[in-house]
């Protein structure tokens, strides 16, 4: 279920400052961590080697920080639906911060807020601040400002 649905350019522009709420919790399994490590070609021991990992300062496996960042798209789809689009394009990210490690088998979720919505020619550029939170501590593990460009379908008044 989506928290917020936008159906028009006017609604999207008016949504600046709107809190999108929280997503559902997602467990970060060791399998997910291993698959992500394989996908990016990084086999760092803090993520996949139990002997060395338990002796480091984290004391357990941790997920790659970029895994939490990449999951922002998973969380945003639970928080916001923009309908009547011709196209939506990921424009990038600003202000990425990795604030705390994510232990494997912990659960995280995303909180979102539309911090900017601005008409730029034929599209609307939206900045959504995502905060990824660790369940056990309610501590943010990652924050990022996601930028998207959206072009709405033309309305046909007949």
Notes on the structure:
There is one protein chain. The chain contains 6 helices and 8 strands; from the N terminus they run E-H-E-E-H-H-H-H-H-E-E-E-E-E. A hairpin with a 5-residue loop joins strand 7 and strand 8. With 158 residues, the protein is an alpha+beta fold. It holds the Pfam family MaoC_dehydratas.
In a nutshell, what does this entry contain?
The protein is α+β, with helices and mostly antiparallel strands and 158 residues long. It has a single domain, classed as Thiol Ester Dehydrase, Chain A. It is built from 6 helices and 8 strands.
Question: CATH homologous superfamily name?
Answer: Hotdog Thioesterase
The overall average pLDDT, rounded, is 85
- The sequence of SSEs as H and E is EHEEHHHHHEEEEE
- Give me the secondary-structure category: alpha+beta
How many E-type strands? 8
Q: What is the chains' assembly state? A: single chain
The rounded Rg comes to 18 Å
Instruction: Note the gap between the termini.
Output: 32 Å
User: Which runs of at least 5 residues are low in confidence (pLDDT < 50)?
Assistant: 50-57
Q: Would you tell me which CATH topology applies?
A: Thiol Ester Dehydrase, Chain A
Estimate the strand proportion.
35-45%
Q: What portion of residues is helical? A: 25-40%
CATH architecture: Roll
- Give the count of structural domains: 1
Helical segment count: 6
Main β-sheet description: 6 strands, antiparallel
Identify the CATH class.
Answer: Alpha Beta
- Tertiary shape: elongated
List keywords for this structure.
8 strands, 158 residues, 41% strand, two-stranded parallel sheet, 6-stranded antiparallel beta sheet, single chain, Thiol Ester Dehydrase, Chain A, alpha+beta
């Amino acid at each position: 279920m989506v928290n917020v649905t936008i159906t028009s350019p006017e609604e999207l522009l008016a949504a600046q400052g709107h809190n999108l709420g929280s997503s559902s919790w997602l467990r970060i399994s060791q399998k997910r961590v291993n698959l992500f490590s394989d996908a990016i070609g990084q086999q760092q021991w803090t993520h996949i080697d139990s002997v060395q990992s338990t002796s480091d300062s984290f004391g357990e496996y941790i997920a790659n920080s970029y895994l939490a960042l990449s999951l922002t798209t998973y969380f945003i789809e639970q928080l916001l639906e923009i309908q009547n689009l011709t196209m939506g394009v990921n424009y990038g990210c600003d202000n990425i911060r990795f604030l705390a490690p994510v232990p494997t088998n912990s659960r995280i979720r995303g909180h979102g807020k539309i911090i900017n919505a601005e008409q730029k020619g034929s599209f609307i550029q939206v900045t959504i601040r995502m905060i990824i939170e660790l369940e056990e501590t309610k501590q943010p593990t990652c924050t990022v400002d996601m930028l998207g460009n959206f072009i709405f379908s033309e309305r046909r008044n007949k």
